[in-house]
UniProtKB/TrEMBL annotation:
Protein name: G-protein coupled receptors family 1 profile domain-containing protein
Gene3D superfamilies tied to this protein: Rhodopsin 7-helix transmembrane proteins
Subcellular localization: Membrane
Organism: Conger conger
Membrane association type: Multi-pass membrane protein
Keyword set, alphabetical order: G-protein coupled receptor, Membrane, Receptor, Transducer, Transmembrane, Transmembrane helix
Length: 150
């Protein structure tokens, strides 16, 4: 949208990538930031939650062990939450008053978000978790048998 004059980007404190320009606190910035926050955080969180709930229902139908649907959502909020808070803070206050070191944390956590999903899936799945445990320790995990006759 910055191509059509709505919102602006600038270098982040590390100078490696672009991010929202926090030095602007005008109406244009606020009107750009709120839909961006909605589209990039709320829709993403709803998608993650509904997808993992669908997976959990599928596991339940097949008699598989329980699947934790809250962990991926918590990881998403852990990674993207600071970025959203910093952006929303910039709508009411001058974000350049925040230390550049603190402003660096938000984009770094946001960039690590895709790294968490494979680990969360692997550690949440008994087959993968057992394989990881066996690889690291050489021991086999005894998985309790589930009565599928119910």
């Amino acid at each position: 949208m910055p191509l059509i004059g709505w919102g602006e980007y600038d270098y982040e404190p590390l100078r490696t990538c672009c991010t929202l320009d926090y030095s602007k606190g005008d109406r244009n910035y606020v009107s750009y930031l709120l839909p961006m926050a909605f589209c990039n955080l709320v829709i993403q969180a709803v998608t993650v939650l509904s997808s993992y709930r669908s997976i959990a229902r599928k596991f339940k139908k097949t008699g598989q062990p329980k699947f934790n649907t809250g962990t991926p959502l918590k990881a998403l909020l852990f990674c993207w939450g600071p970025y959203a808070v910093l952006s929303l803070y910039a709508t009411v206050e001058d974000a350049t008053l925040v230390s550049p070191k603190v402003r660096m944390i938000a984009p770094i956590l946001a960039k690590t978000s895709p790294l968490f999903n494979p680990f969360l899936y692997a550690l949440g799945n008994e087959n993968y978790r057992g394989g990881i445990w066996r690889f690291l320790t050489g021991q086999k995990i005894d998985v309790p048998q589930i009565d599928k006759s119910k």
